[in-house]
TrEMBL record:
Residues 23-272 form the EAL domain. This is Bifunctional diguanylate cyclase/phosphodiesterase. It comes from Cellulomonas aerilata. Transmembrane segments: none annotated.
Amino acid sequence: AKRAAGGSFVFYDPVTDAARGERLAMITELRSAIDSGQLELHYQPVVDMVTGRAISMEALVRWRHPTRGLMPPGGFIPLAEQTGLIGALTLWVVRRAGEQARLWWQGGIRMPVAVNISVDSLIDPAVAHEVVRLLVAAAGELTVEVTESALMNDRGRQVLADLAAANVSCAIDDFGTGYSALAYLRSLPVSAIKIDRTFITDLAHGAGVDLAIIRSVVDLATALGMEVIAEGVETAEIERKLLDAGVRRAQGFHYARPMPPSDLGPWLTASRP
Ligand code: C2E
Ligand code: CA
Ligand code: CA
Ligand code: CA
């Protein structure tokens, strides 16, 4: 320990200091990565389990870091949210996904592309305004995924209502993991519910409780006129259980991992029955 100005003791902790330094470096790097083309979008299909065909795509961001390699979003989205970089990142994602969707539509792949929008970028009025403008201009080609936290926020709900009024579809992501949004679901113009992977994975272990939860989500969604999408389907056995429970749309490694656009053309051709 050394004596700091004012007489209090400050403990020098090399581990914490190293971590803090690394974090600061990463913030600076992420800021320039957004502008210098180090971010990429990979796309994961959502399939109709009955026909086996893709019906939409989800855009998932990655960071091709010069030394760390391809970083998954879990490694930098939270940092972007904590440092105010999420607005710039969201705008990049919406623009890039819009370009890709347009290319696919022009090439005959007429599938909506879903973008993940963190609630923080809906709260910042300047960012939200531009995000809405871009999404409305691409209505039909782009859709939105938000978590339950966006429904718990006044501004978040307002933005979603504006989007719905302009025919931009919205899905509730990771459904079941957040606060209960049931009270809001009734009044919200949401078109789909994505059941979180944790409920799906447990189906493999014969858990009757999870099956009961899924059945009740299907009932709820049907009553509200919403679609249900199961996330994280990894096996044919889980697919069968979901079909039995009345779920028709799914996403997961059983069908396709997230892929760069160049790999999706061949996948789409190969997956055609
Ligand atoms: P999410 O939106 O729930 O996306 C689904 C995640 O589950 C993706 O991870 C995907 O690769 C993974 N996944 C899909 N199928 C399976 C499966 O069968 N098994 C398993 N074990 N995993 C599966 P990823 O790409 O690492 O993304 C993680 C999260 O990062 C996303 O979760 C989303 O919350 C966030 N994220 C991704 N892209 C963006 C973005 O552009 N903006 C924002 N704000 N968040 C993003
Ligand atoms: Ca998502
Ligand atoms: Ca999800
Ligand atoms: Ca998630």
